Every structure is written in C-alpha cells, then in structure tokens.
Amino acid sequence: MENWIHDYCMSKPGVEEEFKQAWNSQLYKLGGKIFVMHGEYKDGRPLLTVKLEPAFSEILRSQYCGDIIPGYYTDKTHWSSLFLDRAVPQDVARAMLDNGYETMLAALPKKAQALIRGAEVL
Q1: Which of 24, 68, 84, 90 is buried most, with the most CB atoms less than 10 Å from its CB?
Q2: Measured between alpha carbons, how far is 64 from 82 in angstroms, rounded to an integer?
Q3: Is the pLDDT of residue 120 over 60?
Q4: Which pLDDT tens digit goes with each residue over 42-91?
Q5: Residue 122 in this model has a pLDDT that exceeds 70
Q6: Quick one: average pLDDT of 21-26?
Q7: 97's torsion region: left (phi>0), alpha (psi -120 to 50) or beta?
C-alpha cells in the first residue's frame, strides 16, 4: 500500500478508516460516508477512487486521459479513479484527496461540519 495515501487521509480531521474485505479495499470515511477507496482494478493494478466535485473530475479525466477514469464500480459523475502505477504526479493525487475531503465535508450537516472543524455550534 502506498503509505503516504493512508497518512495523508488520516491527517485530516474527522477521517476514519475501515478495511472492506469483500472489496479488498481500504476505505476512508468522513461522517460515516466513504470519500476514498484504495484498492485494486479488476486486473490487479493499484487504484485510488475518490468522490470529487464533478467539474474537477472532468478536468482531471481530460488532462490524464486513461490514467484517471470515471469511478470504478461507482457513480461515474461523482467519482474518479486514478491508476497508481501510472505517471500522474503525486500532487495531483493529493489534490484529488483534498477535493474529495472538502466535497464530503460540505455534504455533511452543518452541525457535523462544525464538530469536525472544531468550531462551536451555534
């Protein structure tokens, strides 16, 4: 496993991890909802699947055609998959993780967002 992915995801406030045996994937969740799956493609290649803002997904897929694809076994609008054995720069993968985290955080109720951010709930 690419340890930096685990460390990067777990460094974000409120993130929890779970290994899903049936999918052979490490899941990263925020507010109980998955925003990253780190597993394998059907041919065994390492794959990172992230829930992204749709416009960001489209930009990445056009810039890294074939290396970043519509989400593998997920909704093709909101998820994109990155083949980790390709030449996509690590900063692009980090940007995907950041966008996935922020996208999921924004989808949570305001109270949950405030708790994760450590802010007072009014």
Answers
A1: 68
A2: 9
A3: no
A4: 999 999 999 999 999 999 999 999 999 999 988 888 999 999 999 899 99
A5: no
A6: 92
A7: alpha
pLDDT at residue 38, rounded to an integer: 96
Main-chain dihedrals φ then ψ at residue 42, nearest 5 degrees:
-60, -25
Q: In what order do the strands lie in the sheet with 15-20?
A: 15-20, 25-30, 33-40, 46-51, 79-83, 68-70
Q: Where does residue 55 rank: exposed (0-12), middle (13-18), buried (19+ CB within 10 A)?
A: exposed
Cβ proximity of 66 and 49 under 8 Å: no
117/20 Cα distance (integer angstroms): 27
CA–CA separation, 87 vs 103, rounded Å?
25
Domains of the chain by range and CATH?
3-117 (3.90.1150.30)
Distance CA 38, CA 63 (A): 21
